[in-house]
Amino acid sequence: MLNGSCLCGSIRYEIDGELGQIIKCHCTKCRKASGSAFATNAIVETANFRFVGDQTTLAEFESMPGVIRVFCRQCGSPLLSRRPATPDIIRVRIGTLDSTIAGKPAVHIFVGSKAEWDDINDELPQYAERPVQ
Predict the structure, then answer these.
(1) The pLDDT of residue 132 is above 80
(2) How many Å apart are CA 41 and CA 23, to the nearest integer?
(3) Are 58 and 70 in contact (CB under 8 A)?
(4) CA nearest to 46, candidates 86, 10, 94
(5) How far, rounded to the nearest angstrom, does the alpha carbon of residue 86 sit from its chain's CA centroid?
(6) How many folded domains does the chain comprise?
(7) CA distance linking residue 88 with residue 76, whole number of Å
(8) pTM over 0.85
(9) 3-state SS assignment for residue 67
(10) Domain range for residue 105?
(11) In a domain, 22, yes or no
(12) What gap in Å lies between CA 25 and CA 94, rounded to an integer?
């Protein structure tokens, strides 16, 4: 069981299962949503994810057609993104995990639109866009 929460602690969640591949996404939308050079996400099966406790500060924003970003309206923490076209998976922002994980990022995606002021200094595979899955 993995646990996570937003910055203010008003939103909490649990993941009852394994994290999927950890991805560093450099697309413009993820950069804006994170306020950083990239967002680090892990694919999680929707059936293994649940919010626990009070969810009154939970909010959603459709950042582009078919992409819903879920966040805390109180502190602004981005928690996950989901796509109605792929209802069986979500992408969890692993920076919101409270549990320790053993996994490491596996890949950089959308490096074709990465921030010009950021350098990638690791040996992970890089893709200009999202690789075909």
Answers:
(1) no
(2) 5
(3) yes
(4) 86
(5) 15
(6) 1
(7) 25
(8) yes
(9) strand
(10) 2-113
(11) yes
(12) 12
